[in-house]
Specification:
about 425 residues; Lipocalin; 6-stranded antiparallel sheet; 5-stranded mixed sheet; protein-macromolecule adaptor activity
């Protein structure tokens, strides 16, 4: 191991010097302890397995579950456990997947004797070994991955590294961020990061491709949750008050829409945007997942006449990315970043008038849930009690969602990392 220390509050170690990760489809190696048909509630020692964390991959097609004895990977459609790795040394409080590749970022739980919570392990499961690690003087709050970047979130600072050589690219100071709030764009031609700013209720947006920073005063209270579209052009935020969710254009900071979860204070656990940017899902400690209809439409130069109130071009495909080509090129200084986003005039409420949810689903157990959009107007929900739901909503009439699937993938008592 070659240790590279720096005057900042972290050290970086890479095995055999700087190694490029080998990207491959995520398949269990021969020495993985994997038995999808076995008892999912006991580990290699036969003791109880407790859930420490759950996290989506970047396209919400699968999720990782960190346990007190390792981690497990689940596919969402169809639902099935696809991989697990059990460890005697303890569990992982943070697991970040890189789409469906063999690359994972792992942060140990507090009881992990081998991997402490102040160390990030970049794990290549194709090679069954660590290809890099980052050590800090304080606990890691979150890790986010792009194909070209590793982002490590501490309580007051965020570090951005180049994936191929693990060199530090950027460091960002934030307000106290115990939740590790941070989100990234994931299209190849845009590199956008959003995180809390240095003021209460402020979001800092870094457009790395444009070398531009945008500060958005999103709320009066502290930021509790945030997410972006795959290309980083839209940002959705909620505050610790938990009553309003706001959608912004990340290029100029314009507030595009506001929706209302309720009138009582709530703890927002997650916000999700559908791939076509027609819907927004919000989960909270009130035991309800709310679905909102979005009025923002994506318009590229060659498709502005095709966008209608009922049929928006997919946000994450060519219509949106083609309009960004000029923005990310070196000559983009004079481009009009607002041209890629528009309102459907005549259907928007007034600026100060927030909209209520279009559809909703009431969850039977009080626990922390996170939601995402599946195919054909479905929402998938994963709970920290080891539950998985698939629900459908009526895109015309809304109302109560219909439960299509329920799986208890882990019978567990929720434990802190």
């Amino acid at each position: 191991m070659t240790d590279v220390s720096s005057p900042m509050n972290f050290t970086v170690s890479t095995s055999r010097g700087s190694q490029q990760p080998h990207f491959a489809a995520f398949e269990p190696p021969m020495d993985a302890i994997y038995d999808p048909s076995g008892n999912s509630n006991s580990d290699i020692d036969g003791s109880e397995v407790n859930l420490l964390s759950v996290s989506w991959n970047q396209d919400y097609g699968c999720f990782a579950a960190g346990t007190n004895h390792g981690f497990r990977i689940y596919n969402c459609d169809p639902f099935k456990e696809t991989f697990r790795r059990d460890l005697k040394s303890g569990g992982f409080g943070i697991i970040e997947m890189l789409f469906r590749s063999n690359i994972l970022a792992l942060v140990g739980g507090k009881a992990n004797t081998q991997y402490p919570p102040n160390k990030v392990i970049i794990w290549d499961d194709h090679q069954s070994r660590c290809i890099g690690e980052f050590s800090f003087r304080s606990d890691v709050r979150a890790v986010k991955l792009r194909r070209d970047q590793i982002v490590v979130v501490l309580e007051h600072k965020i570090y951005v590294y180049n994936f191929m050589d693990l060199k530090l690219l950027h460091q960002i100071e934030t307000l106290a961020n115990p939740r590790g709030l941070c989100c990234l764009s994931h299209q190849v031609n845009t590199s956008v990061l959003a995180c809390p700013g240095l003021r209460r209720g402020q979001v800092r947006v870094e457009h790395f491709g444009l070398n531009m920073t945008k500060l958005i005063n999103a709320h009066d209270s502290r930021i509790a949750c945030l997410t972006m579209t795959m290309d980083g052009l839209l940002l959705a935020t909620a505050s610790t008050k938990g009553t309003l969710i706001r959608i912004f254009n990340t290029m100029d900071g314009t507030r595009l829409q506001e929706v209302r979860r309720g009138v009582d204070r709530a703890d927002i656990y997650g916000i999700a945007l559908s791939p076509n940017v027609q819907w927004l899902a919000v989960s909270s400690d009130k035991g309800t997942v709310h679905i909102f209809s979005l009025r923002v439409r994506v318009v590229s130069e060659d498709s502005s006449t095709q966008s209608t109130a009922g049929h928006a071009p997919p946000f994450s495909h060519q219509n949106s990315s083609s309009s960004l080509d000029a923005l990310i090129s070196p000559s983009a200084a004079g481009a009009n970043p607002g041209s890629s986003l528009s309102f459907m005039k005549g259907v928007l409420p007034k600026y100060f008038s927030s909209e209520w949810s279009f559809a909703r689903f009431h969850l039977p157990e009080p626990t922390q849930y996170m939601s995402a959009f599946g195919s054909q107007n479905t929402v998938i929900i994963v709970g920290m009690n080891g539950s998985f739901y698939r629900c459908a909503f009526d895109p015309v009439n809304g109302g109560e969602m219909i439960q299509h699937e329920y799986v208890r993938f882990l019978k567990t008592e929720v434990k802190s990392g």
